[in-house]
Amino acid sequence: MLHKILLAFVAVTCMFLSAPVFAAGPDSLQAILDTVPRNEVKVKTLNELFRAHVQNNPVKAVGFAREALNLATEINDRKGLAAAYNNLGVAYKTQGALDKALEYYLTSLHLYEALQNKEGIATTRNNIATIYSMKKDYGQAMKYLQESYKLFIELKDEDKIIGSMNNLGNLHSEIQLYEKAMDYFSQAYQLSEKKGQAYADPLTNIGNLYFRQNNYQRAVENYEKALQIERKNNNMLGALNILINLGITYTKAKQPKPAQVYLDEAARLCEELQAFSYLPSIYKNTSENYSNQGKWKEAYDAYVKYDEAREKIYGEESSRKIAQMEMLIDFQEKEKELDLLKSQDEITRLELRSTQLVVVLIILGVLTVLGGLNLFLRKKMLK
Question: Could you tell me the keywords of this UniProt record (predicted)?
Fold first, then answer.
């Protein structure tokens, strides 16, 4: 169903929210990487190379993120470390490893919070929300998205505001608040036009709303326009998302030939990019498309693949792992609070002991003086 693609698109938007630090292309970044020493600038460059490659070559991008993580750990670059963890979270989520992605996102968030880095906090909260969306925990997803959006407004970062609006629109659409969703998408598109740069995201999302209204023609119009933008920008993950949406739309419109063309292209691109979180939707709609044509054997085989992919990505085991991770992090935070209280209590006890010692010394001093004075008076009386 399209709703899973909507959630997948939230995931694409979250990568768009990780704004580059350098205004340079992959070649320029590689040139910087080859010349700078092993310091914070090199970590920052590696993280930027991840972002430069993640939409068209995710495998290569992960290599840069891991190198950034290792170097940041070695030189104790906490900001670079937080960015590397966030980038790896993006990569694992795209591959469908949601529990691993959440683990990296939460680690990144705690680092950014310790640094009081608002931009990093906002971006990572947005990314955490995508995991909750994919897990259908819409309450938690809304909480994290709204917190993220509020911070982006404070930072006046228009690019990230547009991405955040898209995510909020997707979530409102998912809980069937379509009018509110359209407001977010329209505002996002208007803001992108104001910036003088066409963004595919709002168009795709508007197409999603038309799809929900069974207005397949208007949906296809918006998807095709968005697909042209993504291909022009070489955003292969964005193009993958739209290809799947087009395949689903033509399937629902009972036009099997164009539907299968788009779904097959999406499946090939999915494998090429190792974007496995998209596979359940591709397989499920491929099965439906074969059913519409009476190809029952092909439909059955595709549905078996769908069931296997869905269980691997959205299964109960993954949900349990996420819950366990959050409990562990909460427990660790409580332990830190307890250790702090213990330290404060120990300080109080030491201060009390010090005060008591001073009092004892004063009393001993007074007694010594009194004893000496008494001895002096007795000797004088004896004389």
Answer: Membrane, Signal, TPR repeat, Transmembrane, Transmembrane helix
Contact 130, 167 (CB under 8 A): yes
Instruction: Summarize pLDDT for 287-318 with one digit per residue, the tens.
Output: 999 999 999 999 999 999 999 888 887 764 55
Between the two ends of the chain, the Cα-to-Cα distance in Å is 114
Q: How far apart are CA 370 and CA 377, in angstroms?
A: 10
Calpha distance 329→157 (Å, rounded):
30
- Name the CATH architecture for the domain at 2-305: Alpha Horseshoe (1.25)
How far is 327 from 339, CA to CA, in rounded Å? 18
DSSP 214: T
Q: What is the Cα–Cα distance from 335 to 354, expressed in whole angstroms?
A: 28
Whole-model pTM over 0.70:
no
Q: Which positions ≥6 away from 244 have C-beta within 8 Å?
A: 5, 8, 262, 263, 266, 278, 281, 282, 285
Q: What is the DSSP string of 34-55?
A: HHS-SSHHHHHHHHHHHHHHTT
Nearest alpha carbon to residue 282 among 324, 339, 242, 321: 242
Domain boundaries, the chain: 2-305, 354-383
